[in-house]
Amino acid sequence: MIKDGDFFTVADLKKSVAQVTGVDVQKYLKNRLVLNPDSYAEQNIQLYADIKSSALALDKQLKDSGFRTKYKFSYDYNIPGLSYDEIVRDAYKLEFFYSLAVGDTKKKVKPECKKALVNAFFDAARVSYYYAQYIWATNPSSRFDYSQRFNPQRDWGFVISFLLGVGFRFHPKDVYEFVVNHNNPYLNQAQRDGLYAKQLDFKNWCMDTHKIDTGCLVLCAEHQEKLRKILNRTDTPYFVQQVQALSKQIKAISERIMFGRLH
């Protein structure tokens, strides 16, 4: 299993995920559990079986409804060796251990197995963090500032939320919104309710006014405003967007050519 400070490959990461989620926590507990990591993941995945990504679904709806925009609310992450479905499944399998760690498991654990169970939790938390580190390394723009202050054990919930956001192909800014605001384990219920109400108001406006369903997508304020402009047809004209996109492509090609010359 990967240890702190190790350099690791995606193969090492997959092996560590399999090792930590393959631990039979049942043997540490007095009573049998209804779910295990695999069944917990499958149960959660089936909740969204009809729409695997609200971000992709939103992009498709805009196109199908005739809203001309070059902007995408989904995001193409650089995840060599992984797939989005794999990230979601792994995140839920790791979340199974997190749910036990923050639940009432202490009341159910066999006294002589307490240390072994705690070690299993620590391993799952560390592997979750290594998973996030891999994505941050291959996608620097997804780091923002929270990756600098995450602690593998203390902020385990944050890390799981980050992995799920990436797996659902949320834009990095929306992942941040999802992780730090909406899924922040330190929020009280009143704060959660307030954030949910604001998202719901915007979601209802999109549906009631324009028949666009944002699904489970958690949009940051910037993207709410962007989507509002697109739906109200007050966004940058499409032909201007095309010119801007072409300009970016030319600049990127020029930079690659210049980089090749310098090396």
Please, could you describe this protein's structure?
The chain has 11 helices and no strands. By secondary structure, it is mostly helical. The chain is globular, with a radius of gyration of 21 Å. The protein starts with 9 loop residues before the first helix and ends with a helix.
In short:
Helices cover 62% and strands 0% of the residues. The protein is mainly α.
What keywords describe this structure?
11 helices; 263 residues; mainly alpha; single chain
| C-alpha geometry | globular
Gyration radius over CA? 21 Å
Rounded to the nearest angstrom, the distance between the terminal CA atoms is 38 Å
Largest sheet: none
Detail the poorly predicted runs.
Answer: none
Structure classification = mainly alpha
**What oligomerization state is this entry in?**
single chain
Question: Could you outline the blueprint of secondary structure elements for this entry?
Answer:
Elements: H1 10-21, H2 37-47, H3 54-64, H4 84-101, H5 114-138, H6 146-149, H7 156-167, H8 172-182, H9 189-210, H10 221-232, H11 238-262
Helix pairs in contact: 1-5, 2-4, 4-5, 4-7, 5-7, 7-8
